[in-house]
Specification:
This protein is of the alpha/beta class. The chain is built from 16 helices and 14 strands. β5, α7 and β6 form a beta-alpha-beta unit. The longest helix has 20 residues. The protein binds ligand F0G.
């Protein structure tokens, strides 16, 4: 087989700034060793997130010019609505400014004191919105999903037995809906199988509860299904996508991921009454239902993005280029969450910095080392983010869509390799400033 290449050529370029080790050290100290607080200009390769950081296509930019900015009933809204209806089979499509706005509306309506919302793994904003409503958020991912070395094909699956147990323990009346995150971001970007969605749907049907998808990375999940699930290899990603959404009663989507845009979100609903209530909340805080806090041009770009993301040559390149980074790291002896996920590679910082105890934030120490050594920005997903609840110490390198070339990735591999050679020199950290909530965004550190 020939090399899988980037299925696009570059039309516009954005220079990135080379910095000296001394400049990076200064930026790091000024930011209290928190990479969220380092100005983006001081970063050479930015792998902080794949959210809103992708490159739009020439057709998307053309759509930006075509955007209809009418307050109500804009042409761009109808194009967006039609695209989502066709792709997902849902009738009711609400635009929002990003994923968490969809979550906030949904959980204001179905959450509340005493309620319990299960998921494979809640993303942090989903959890925060559920808890903000007074409800509690429960993670029920399969056990394989918690072991970085387990190579099962669908480590994002929701454990059906644990879900049944939750229903009998807390009682169906306290569970307003069941959610599945595809792919499972907090669990290493691992996919969920079609069979698992069907099985969870069956449990929901039994208890007469709606199933919702947190579908930010639905296209990557659908392509994993095509590659890995028995009997799915000959189907189109579009058909698999339609079936995944067809099994659900609703979905929240951050279009900043597989929507291929810099800003935007979606709330999909089947239930008429819930839709009407959501529409009212949308008007209250986001905007009229035909723009939902976005410009008409954003809706145009989303409609086009949701089209392009299902191109299978794009998805083959996307998953393969992420896998390439992962496989090269494994070859060097760097333990990652296996098998590689769709949008990111997660380094197991516990084994990378085996000499550092968890209280000294090994993940954050590695994040700082990658920046110091090569100007790479990554993100700790461990003790800093989740406190004592952290089950793993991970460093996520998320890959923006259609942004970096293979030589950028080769550079990242070299930097990690050199840091790995000298890993014994990495120092532990202590938290100097600890904000009360979502502390990873603003906490500051110093070396122990
Ligand atoms: N759900 C999942 C699974 C996500 O990964 C995100 C965002 C959201 C919901 C919220 O969407 O940012 O548009 O409000 N994840 C980004 C990340 C921020 O870096 O993984 P949003």
């Amino acid at each position: 087989m020939k090399t899988i290449i980037e299925p696009f050529r570059i039309k516009v370029v954005e220079p990135i700034k080379m910095t000296t080790p001394q400049e990076r050290e200064e930026a790091l100290q000024k930011a209290g060793m928190n990479l969220f607080l380092v100005p983006a200009e001081e970063v050479l390769i930015d792998l902080l997130t794949d959210s809103g950081t992708g490159a739009m296509s020439s057709e998307q930019w053309a759509g930006i010019m075509r955007g209809d900015e009418s307050y109500a009933g804009a042409k761009s809204y109808f194009r967006f609505e039609e695209r989502l209806q066709e792709m997902t089979g849902f009738d009711h499509v609400l635009p929002t400014h990003q994923g968490r706005a969809s979550e906030r509306i949904l959980f204001e309506l179905v959450g509340g004191e005493g309620k319990v919302v299960p998921n494979n793994n809640h993303f942090d904003t989903t959890r925060a919105n559920i808890e903000h409503s007074g409800a509690s958020a429960v993670d029920l991912v399969v056990d394989e999903g918690k072991n970085p070395r387990d190579r099962s094909p669908f480590k994002g699956n929701l454990d059906v037995a644990k879900l049944e147990r939750l229903f009998s323990e807390v009682g169906p009346e306290r569970i307003p809906l069941v959610m599945i995150t595809i792919t499972n971001n907090s669990g290493g970007g691992q996919p969920v199988s079609l069979q698992n969605i069907r099985d969870v749907r069956e449990v929901c049907r039994k208890h007469n509860k709606p199933l919702f998808l947190d579908a930010c990375r639905f296209a990557e999940n659908a392509y994993f299904i095509k590659l890995r699930e028995p009997g799915q290899g000959d189907r189109s990603v579009a058909a698999i996508t339609r079936e995944m959404f067809g099994l659900a009663d609703g979905a929240t989507i951050s279009a900043k991921k597989d929507g291929m845009v810099n800003i935007g979100g979606v709330l999909l609903l089947r239930d008429e009454e819930l839709y009407r209530q959501a529409q009212n909340l949308l008007i209250l805080t986001e905007g009229f239902p035909t723009y939902g806090g976005l410009a008409g041009r954003d809706l145009e770009a989303m409609a086009q993005g949701f089209e392009e993301v299902l191109h299978e040559d794009y998805l083959a390149y996307r998953l393969r280029s992420t896998e390439y980074l992962g496989v090269r790291l494994l070859d060097m002896g760097v333990q990652i969450v296996e098998p590689p996920g769709g949008h990111a590679i997660y380094i197991d910082a516990k084994s990378f910095c085996a000499h550092l105890p968890p209280e000294q934030f090994p993940g954050q120490s590695l994040v700082c080392a990658l920046y110091r050594h090569g100007g790479i920005r990554s993100c700790e997903i461990g003790r800093v983010m989740f406190g004592e609840n952290a089950t793993m110490e991970l460093v996520r390198m998320a890959i923006p869509r259609r942004v970096y070339t293979q030589s950028h990735v080769d550079y990242v591999i070299e930097v990690i390799g050199e840091v790995y050679e000298r890993r014994q020199a990495l120092k532990g950290l202590r938290m100097v400033y600890e904000p009360p909530a979502l502390r990873h965004f603003t906490a500051t550190f110093e070396e122990v």
